[in-house]
Design brief:
The complex is a heterodimer of chains A (752) and B (152). Chain A has 19 helices and 25 strands. By secondary structure, chain A is α+β, with helices and mostly antiparallel strands. A seven-stranded antiparallel β-sheet of chain A has the order 1-11-3-2-6-5-4. Chain A is rod-shaped. Chain A starts with a helix and ends in a 5-residue tail after the last strand. With 152 residues, chain B is of the alpha/beta class. The two termini of chain B are 27 Å apart. The chains are: A alpha+beta (752), B alpha/beta (152).
């Protein structure tokens, strides 16, 4: 593979290729030190930065091919040898501090590509003493541990780092799941009066992939003066490999021109950047900036800062985990509350109380619950119509029980209209057939971002030179995250799945319970009918005995009883007869549901005629019974329908005190395809509205036993049961003292 | 030929038996009314077995009156036992019962019953029915002359 041909070096990079810039092969270093690459076995100098003359004395070309002994003394060379022998040394280690030509240097060594990179960093000497630095770092760690939230933790961390280093701005920068960046915390020198960057978002492109890879190699990167002129190496190629020297880990590595451009645009003169890691992965950065001028952070302070970065990483992982687990506990708690709020009704819209706060579940701006054609909304949501359309779309397009997206409009273009409110969607499907969902909406990210500056200020994106500015970056970020919400976490998806399965479990359990209940009801209804039948049957036998014995007594011993005795026997016989009537009605009633009748087409004209015929003897010349219109053919059992009409007609005829009595049997003009509505009307005594229901109760009588011809009081009960068994219903309308109309519906023959 | 054989009543109700006996007396019915309390009792009497071993009698009764609602084997089972037994199946059986349920009526005729009377609440109405019944079976109808088949 010809990597050389494709190599893009720092000197010839632009925006279009910066993602490919191989910044580890910078070929140049920062000017505040000297770099010598040496052969390991004999310390012969292979490459040197071209600034050796000003720093160390000899010019670079004089050093090449010479031993390192030209620069360092024997004891120093021994120290280097010992350190090389003691370990891998793939990252720079400070070997010692030395004095060369009145200048102090910290000397760092590390191995790469078979050579030893030796870096001489000039030490300026104005630093805090180590003891006070140690005690303040120690105090900071104690304070950091005491913070309660990730936010307050980071706020404290940036504040302390600014305090040690003297930078005028320190940012805690977090990489999001989508690689975009977020300034989570910031410490600013209050005296400087700078614009705050806190809360700003950055597109992923602001920190290109090569930079991220490099970050993983070193904990700390420092550029004392952004306005530096890179010092090239001579020769450019590593003589041992023929390729450029890999400066990935070098302290003095010259940075990408993109990065320095970015920093310059921010008005930064000096920077110090530390990694924050979580679980071995780059979580974010602690970035220090100095706007007032170059700032060289001495080695001791850098060590303290690096230690801080390690500790912050370690503690922050714990803080984040505890915040996440608190969130997870909250999700679980909601699930439990959800289950206990269940009302025991398998119809979901009634099951979940409207008061149940769905927003107590995942972080969301709004939530809704959809049923057949209704929506219950909480918080900020699209309109009911939009939600219903969304539920229908989900039914049709998402086969999954849980659906999440942080860019709904990319699935459903109509969702663009409500993107500000609902770019993110988490949907739990409860029932596909009638579009029952629980929905949570997340607003578009730009709606939620707190922007410390003036978000309305227009940004010119045309000039590449201005492109890498925080505000510009923010605008670009806004474009890249347009119509998207914060992403849903695996944790939230899992909680949604748990919530669904616990709800399904409840629904299934309730369904089973209801099924059992229904079976019980059916059984007890059947048992009641059977009981009524057996009881009335068995009660008849002793009753007949009583009646017969009274009769026999009356027949055989009447002459030996006085009138009172004979009257009492008569009463006994009369009461027996009445009880017999009651039992007959009960038997008849119990048979209606119990006996499976055969259904067929029944011509109600014929039935009405039969009913009238059977009643004529009873009411001949007393009541005018007429059929006012041609009656329909219905679905039913003829004998039962005859009972209905016979009962209704005889009731109508009986409860009438008018001089001219009439009963009309008719049908209402077609009200439905399926059912017809028949009526039996009379000009009788009428029924008070409060009795409209009672008249159908078994053995309920509204009049004296012997008024209006008497009766057991079960006729209308039997009529009602027959009508209902036929699938119809019956009710009464009445005007007191004028008329009563019994209306009932029956299935029309040939109906749908 | 004048019928002299008894009529057998199979009914567990003492009161109903008393009523029938009363009717028997009032109407001066000329044949004996024999009463068995249940189906087992009746079959033993009819076949001259068990407690009735050696019953010295004239053979099958002229008519059997059978109640449906009885303890132990119910009337329907007794009816089927009578109708399945070659020695007994020619003797007419009239159901005399409380039930007026059409389903019961149909089931009894299907099971080989020769008549079905609902016991009336009014003993005097019942007397009219019984008189007609006895008159039909004993005076109008011709009955098979069953052999005596008791064992002794």
């Amino acid at each position: 593979m010809s990597t050389k041909a494709k190599m893009i070096l720092a000197q010839n990079v632009d925006l279009s290729n910066c993602d490919r810039e191989q910044i580890q092969y910078a070929g140049a270093i920062l000017p505040h030190g000297v770099l010598l690459s040496i052969r390991e076995q004999d310390f012969v100098i292979l490459q040197a930065s071209v600034n050796t003359a000003t720093m160390l004395g000899p010019a670079a070309e004089q050093l090449l091919g010479q031993s390192l002994a030209v620069v360092l003394n024997d004891s120093e060379l021994r120290t280097i040898r010992e350190q090389l022998d003691s370990g891998v040394l793939d990252t720079p280690r400070r070997a010692f501090r030395t004095l060369i030509r009145e200048l102090q240097f910290d000397v760092f060594i590390h191995r790469v590509d078979g050579v030893i990179i030796t870096e001489f960093e000039q030490h300026t000497g104005n630093h805090q003493d180590s003891a006070s630095l140690y005690s303040s770092v120690h105090a900071a760690l104690t304070d950091l541990q005491a913070t309660e939230t990730v936010q307050s933790f980071l706020d404290l961390a940036v504040d302390r780092v600014r305090h040690y280093t003297g930078f005028d701005r320190v940012l805690a920068y977090k990489f999001m799941e989508d690689d975009t960046g977020w300034v989570r915390s910031e410490s600013l020198d209050p005296a400087a009066g700078f614009v705050s960057y806190k809360g700003l978002r950055y597109p992923a492109s602001d920190i290109p992939q090569p930079a991220r890879r490099l970050f993983a190699k070193t904990w700390l990167r420092h550029q004392p003066d952004i306005g530096y002129t890179p010092v090239p190496l001579a020769p450019q190629a590593n003589p041992l490999t023929g390729g450029p020297l890999d400066l990935s880990c070098a302290l003095l590595r010259s940075v990408s021109v993109m990065y320095s451009g970015y920093l310059k645009n921010m008005g930064t003169h000096s920077s110090l950047v530390m990694n924050l890691l979580r679980d071995g992965k780059l979580w974010g950065l602690l970035a220090c900036h100095n706007h007032r001028g170059p700032l060289h952070v001495p080695y001791e302070v850098r060590v303290a800062c690096e230690f801080m970065a390690h500790m912050v990483s370690y503690l922050m992982a714990a803080k984040e985990r505890s915040e996440e687990s608190a969130y997870a506990v909250g999700l679980k708690t909601f699930e439990a509350k959800f289950a206990s709020s269940f009302s025991g009704d398998p119809k979901l819209e009634r099951t979940l109380p409207a008061s149940l706060n769905l927003l107590g579940f995942v972080r969301a701006g709004g939530a809704a619950r959809t049923g057949n054609s209704h929506v219950i909304k909480q918080g900020r949501t699209p309109s009911s119509e939009q939600i219903l359309a969304l539920a229908q779309w989900l039914s049709a397009h998402s086969p999954n029980d849980i659906f999440t997206t942080n860019c709904l409009s990319s699935h459903l273009p109509e969702a663009l209209t409500y993107a500000p409110i609902a770019s993110g969607l988490l949907a739990i499907r409860l029932s596909k057939t009638d579009h029952q969902y629980l929905l949570w909406f997340r607003p578009e990210q730009t709606q939620t971002v707190h922007w410390a500056g003036d978000p309305a200020k227009p940004v010119d994106l045309s000039d590449d030179g201005e492109r890498l500015m925080p505000r510009t970056s923010f605008a670009i970020w806004k474009q890249t995250v347009q119509f998207t919400s914060q992403p849903w976490l695996d944790l939230e998806r899992a909680a949604a799945a748990d919530l669904r399965s616990s709800l399904m479990e409840i629904l299934i359990r309730e369904g089973e319970r209801l099924y059992d209940l229904y079976a019980d009801l059916e059984r007890s209804r059947n048992e009641l009918d059977a009981f009524a039948y057996v009881a009335s049957h068995d009660l008849k036998e002793p009753l007949r005995g009583i009646s017969n014995y009274a009769k026999m007594l009356n027949a055989d011993y009447a002459d030996r009883l006085d009138q009172e005795g004979r009257d009492r026997l008569e009463t006994l016989i009369r009461l027996s007869r009445r009880m017999d009537n009651l039992l007959d009605s009960l038997l008849q009633y119990s048979r209606i549901g119990r006996i499976a009748d055969t259904y067929g087409e029944v011509d109600m004209n014929a039935v009405a005629k039969d009913a009238i015929d059977s009643l004529t003897a009873q009411f001949v010349n007393k009541v005018d019974i007429r059929i006012t219109s041609s009656l329909p053919t219905v679905i039913g059992t003829e004998s039962r329908l005859l009972e209905v009409l016979t009962n209704l007609i005889s009731n109508a005829a009986k409860y009438n005190d008018k001089a001219v009595k009439w009963v009309e049997i008719g049908v209402e003009p077609e009200t439905s395809d399926k059912f017809c509505e028949l009526y039996v009307r009379d000009n009788g005594i009428g029924i008070l509205p409060e009795h409209n229901e009672q008249i159908f109760d078994i053995f309920r009588r509204l009049h004296g036993r012997d008024e209006f011809g008497g009766g057991a009081g079960a006729g209308l009960t039997i009529v009602k049961k027959i009508v209902e068994v036929h699938g119809g219903r019956i009710w009464v309308e009445s005007v007191m003292n004028e008329q009563t109309t019994f209306r009932f519906t029956l299935r029309r023959a040939g109906g749908k | 030929m004048k019928e002299t054989r008894p009529i057998l009543l199979i009914d567990d109700s003492d009161e109903d038996f008393a009523s029938l006996a009363w009717i028997w007396r009032r109407s001066a019915i000329g044949v004996t009314l024999v009463r068995c309390k249940d189906g087992e009792d009746a079959l033993e009497w009819l076949l001259g077995t068990g407690r009735y071993l050696g019953r010295n009698d004239t053979g099958n009764p002229a008519l059997i009156l059978l109640d449906l609602n009885m303890p132990r084997s119910n009337g329907a089972a007794v009816l089927s036992a009578l109708k399945l037994n070659p020695l007994l199946q020619t003797t007419p059986v009239v159901i005399l019962t409380t039930s007026s349920n059409p389903a019961d009526v149909e089931a009894c005729y299907r099971g080989g019953a020769n008549g079905y009377i609902t016991k009336s609440l009014d003993v005097e109405d019942m007397e009219v029915s019984i008189r007609k019944l006895v008159s039909f079976w004993l005076e109008v109808a011709s009955l098979p002359q069953g052999e005596f088949h008791g064992r002794g």
